[in-house]
Amino acid sequence: MNFWLVKSEPDVYGWAHFTAQGRAVWDGVRNYQARNNLSAMRLGDQVLFYHSVSKPAVVGLATVVREAYPDPTVTETPNRWVAVELEPVMAFEQPVTLAQIKAEPMLATIALIRQSRLSVMPIRPDEFELLLKLSDT
DNA sequence: GCCAACGTTGGC
DNA sequence: GCCAACGTTGGC
């Protein structure tokens, strides 16, 4: 089992949209490192859902329900990009804000801080555990 | 709205 | 292959 974090701008596609829809095609990623992370996702992996920009915080947990396949939004050939599909698992009781994450010494090396512009990233098991704990979920 | 970080593009 | 210009992301 692997752990990941994906970012989304809540004004564009937030947790509320995700849960209302029940399932999301995670497409549109156009960064090689993020794409490689999408490709490494396996069925049942746990995915933290992060709201960027307006209220930066981890807001919920999702799981991988379809592994990487060619991104259907790409029209050029060859298609270098991939999509996965995610389903919501549960909302966090308390969103874990970026400020909290930055204030936590044990999360100093989390990819969210080290590579602030990456939109799909791996999370270590210990980081994942701590984030869940901070969420009171 | 501003700015830092950083990825991409294109000239040479 | 180097680097300047430029665009995008995302925090504040």
Automatic annotation (TrEMBL):
Protein name as it appears in the record: Ubiquinol-cytochrome C reductase
Domain EVE per the UniProt entry, residue ranges: 2-134
Pfam families: EVE
Lineage: superkingdom: Bacteria
SUPFAM superfamilies (UniProt xref): PUA domain-like
